[in-house]
Amino acid sequence: MSTSTTTTANRAGFLVEPEPTGPVAQLYDQEQERQGYVANLTRVWAQSPEALAVLSHALSLATTLAGLGEAERALLTTATASTMGDAYCSLAWGANLARAVGDDVAAGLIRGDDSRLGERGLALAHWARQVVGDPNGTTGADVEELRRLGYTDQQVFGLTFFVALRQAFSTVNDALGAAPDAELADRVPPAVRRAVGFGRPSPT
Predict the structure, then answer these.
(1) Which InterPro entries match (predicted)?
(2) How far apart are CA 146 and CA 126, in angstroms?
(3) Model's pTM, two decimal places?
């Protein structure tokens, strides 16, 4: 018997979960094996495992185009999620960012304070916030600043593509009611958890 049949609830967010068979069962089993539970957002995306695979492929492509390392991915994702008020990815990726830059710096970024980031991190956070908050407000000077730091035009495209995809992912999760998992909240550094005072709360 598939392990996913014992972990599936009736609902994921606002949607009724599909039957855990075929691609859905495979998706659930892979996540159960990887982290010990099936995340709420995965239960939402189980409506179309193919859509999740397409988005994951696009994010991988964007990461390659931008030349992002793990810390830069965490910074961009956390800046994107916190700017749009998404608690789920702010917690998950804020925890990843904390491992790279420290709990207090990651918590500050989530609260909108980028002052403790280095020059490169500051520019990335600024770009992510601008793309999310006011894409029509970007200027050539913003792009020139990224060039000055060594980013090629293809990498700037990749950065922008990455942020836009992360925003799309968070939008689907938030709009369809996926709340952060209790298991996730339990493993997030306290400073990061306290900084996330927005979005859907974790179940208690």
Answers:
(1) AhpD-like
(2) 10
(3) 0.92
